[in-house]
Amino acid sequence: MRLLLFRLIGILEVAGGCYGMIQMLYRLLPFRAHDSAVALIGLVLYAFVLVAGALLLENSERGVRWSGWAQLLQLPLIATPVFSWALHCGGYVNVFATLHLPPHLGLAAHFGSQAFVLAIGGPAASHLGINLLALLSWLALRLR
């Protein structure tokens, strides 16, 4: 069971990391100063996730450790007027709260996708959440 979970996590990391790198390279092409810096950070993050997934598929102990870090990077969902952060590779199941009057909970899910948001500033109505898929993947990687 452990091997099957690790393979599934590794496949999602490799696919999401590869697709994310392609998207970040596409964003880098116009060479705009602000967007290029964010795209370069995203490129490095997606490359890290891709390598972590490849090492995990090889059943390497380093792959387990790096994949754990890759899952922790995908865990938070922060969208505030001051700062925004979101990362997912391969898919997500986000549970989030909108901190606006009246506050409400939401659930969003998608597989076969990638996204990276890093911004100073963000939406007027703050959202805070957690990626349940990343949390479950991180917990599965903790199985020994």
TrEMBL record:
The entry's keywords: Membrane, Transmembrane, Transmembrane helix
Top-level taxon of the source organism: Bacteria
TM region positions: 36-57, 69-95, 115-141
Name of the featured protein: CPBP family intramembrane metalloprotease
Organism: Rhodanobacter lycopersici
